[in-house]
């Protein structure tokens, strides 16, 4: 947003910090937190807020920082609340305000310097700080309305590195922060760290996926040349995507999953202290946490199922097809070879991604009430077939397939590139009675790289 005159300006016109300011100690009143009477903790309210935040992180991670500031505003009963993220631009490090709630909400998008600001002082001292009338030292706050009576700031870190601060502000002397406010804000700073880490992972994933759309477009425009450079680029980007899915999956499980487990244990510990008439609320909170844990585990496993690494494609395929049938209400039949022998790692990953994409297409486009999945191992090859009994591919897509190979869809193009990278064959059979994806991959340790033609069969028996 365009900064108004009310938004803090970080430096003077010459780029230097204004001189003649008062000392930091003259505006710090952190010791007051220990001397002031403190209200008793409200653990039920706190845990309810944490459960709501965890659910929001799973449902809508892009809005989680605003949800966090709304929660701070509500739980601490402050006049304003916000998140400051430490960022770097051409001018160096600075704090950026991506989310603010309360009376200062119009200042979203503003920020302060790294080295001359309340946030910077908090990170330098690595401790929560309580400020009074910050404009007396940091003159760029003087135009800001309403002014600061007190500001309580707490740092948060990601993997040992400073990520920023969360803060609550009182604009009148009717609200004085106490030790319980500091405890609550410090508790929420742990969630801020997890939320920041999830958002960073999502940003990285989007950057990788954006680079993959772009590369696919270039590949399709030059498909007749089929240069080795473009093939390798596409393959590398898909490997990066797979690695990113695995990393995001692990972060969801190890970070958010553990955080939710901690919330669940806290709720369990409250059971002996909750009056009988309030037990139903505690049980509702526990049920919500359990649902969040299940949903987080499901999202994590859909991104990259641990079974694929631990037990191989056969076990991962059984789990995925079963869960697909439950989610989509499409009858799914799975036929696998009796052998339990593991396939090469890259072959298993390729087969699983093709299975995922094929079943997604069945659910979204085919209109089929059932699907059959079959894997055969013979003559040194793995043959995966995914067959539906729906409406078949639309004429426009068929025309694209006839004229340009896989011009009709990025998903089909991605499957083809995975198969080509292993020197396999990718066949599509489609008519008004359904569609079948047939993938053949060599199982030799040294699979020959190269592009194979995609064969598309139609109702009249002709081939493109």
Structure, explained:
The structure is a single chain. The chain has 12 helices and 12 strands. It starts with 31 loop residues before the first helix and ends in a 7-residue tail after the last strand. 47% of the residues lie in helices and 19% in strands. A hairpin with an 8-residue loop joins β2 (92-102) and β3 (111-113). It has helices spanning 32-35, 43-59, 64-76, 118-125, 179-221, 228-270, 279-303, 306-310, 313-328, 345-366, 395-404, 410-421; strands at residues 80-89, 92-102, 111-113, 129-132, 150-158, 161-170, 331-335, 370-378, 381-388, 425-431, 434-442, 455-457. It is an alpha+beta fold. The chain has 2 domains: 1-304, Beta-Lactamase; 306-464, Heat Shock Protein 90 (2-Layer Sandwich), CATH 3.30.565. It has a 6-stranded antiparallel beta sheet with strand order 3-2-1-6-5-4, with helices on both faces. A 6-stranded mixed beta sheet has the order 7-8-9-11-10-12, with helices on one face. α3 runs antiparallel to α5 (179-221), α6 (228-270) packs antiparallel against α7 (279-303) and α10 (345-366) packs antiparallel against α12 (410-421).
Strand order of the largest sheet: 3-2-1-6-5-4
Number of DSSP strands?
12
| Fraction in helix | 40-55%
Order of helices and strands: HHHEEEHEEEHHHHHEHEEHHEEE
Shape: elongated
Task: Give the full name of the CATH homologous superfamily of the largest domain.
Answer: GAF domain
């Amino acid at each position: 947003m365009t900064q108004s005159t009310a938004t803090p300006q970080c430096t003077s016109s010459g780029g230097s910090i204004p001189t003649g300011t008062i000392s930091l100690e003259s505006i710090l009143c952190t010791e007051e937190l220990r001397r002031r009477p403190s209200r008793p903790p409200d653990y039920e309210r706190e845990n309810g807020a944490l459960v709501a935040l965890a659910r929001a992180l799973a449902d809508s991670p892009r809005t989680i920082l605003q949800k966090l500031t709304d929660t701070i505003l509500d739980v601490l009963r402050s006049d304003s609340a916000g998140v400051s993220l430490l960022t770097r631009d051409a001018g160096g490090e600075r704090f950026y305000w991506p989310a603010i709630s309360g009376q200062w909400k119009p200042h979203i998008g503003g920020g302060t310097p790294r080295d001359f600001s309340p946030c910077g002082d908090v990170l330098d001292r690595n401790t929560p700080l309580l400020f009074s009338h910050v404009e007396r030292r940091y003159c760029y706050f003087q135009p800001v309305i309403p002014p600061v009576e007190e500001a309580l700031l707490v740092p948060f870190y990601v993997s040992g590195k400073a990520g920023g601060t969360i803060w609550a502000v009182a604009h009148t002397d009717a609200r004085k922060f106490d030790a319980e406010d500091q405890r609550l804000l410090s508790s929420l700073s742990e969630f801020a760290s997890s939320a920041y880490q999830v958002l960073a992972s999502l940003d990285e994933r989007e950057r990788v996926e954006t680079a993959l759309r772009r590369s696919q477009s270039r590949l399709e425009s030059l498909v007749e040349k089929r240069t080795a450079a473009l093939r390798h680029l596409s393959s590398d980007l898909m490997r990066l995507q797979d690695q990113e899915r695995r990393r995001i999956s692990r972060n969801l499980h190890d970070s958010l999953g553990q955080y939710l487990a901690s919330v669940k244990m806290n709720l369990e510990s409250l059971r002996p202290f909750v009056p009988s008439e309030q037990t139903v609320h505690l049980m509702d909170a526990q049920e919500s946490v359990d649902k969040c844990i299940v949903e987080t585990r499901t999202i994590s496993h859909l991104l990259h199922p641990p079974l694929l690494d631990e037990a191989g494609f056969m076990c991962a395929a059984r789990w995925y097809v079963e869960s697909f049938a439950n989610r989509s209400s499409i009858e799914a039949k799975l036929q696998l070879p009796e052998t339990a022998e593991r396939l090469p790692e890259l072959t298993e990953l390729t087969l699983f991604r093709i299975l995922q994409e094929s079943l997604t297409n069945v659910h979204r486009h085919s209109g089929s009430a059932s699907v059959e999945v079959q894997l055969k191992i013979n003559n040194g090859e793995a043959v995966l077939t995914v067959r539906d009994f729906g409406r078949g591919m639309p004429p426009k897509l068929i025309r694209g397939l006839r004229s340009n190979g896989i011009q009709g869809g990025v998903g089909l193009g991605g499957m083809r590139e995975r198969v080509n990278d292993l020197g396999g064959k990718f066949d599509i059979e489609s008519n008004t009675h359904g569609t079948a994806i047939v993938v053949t991959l060599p199982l030799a340790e040294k699979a020959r790289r190269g592009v194979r033609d995609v064969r598309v069969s139609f109702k009249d028996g002709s081939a493109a």
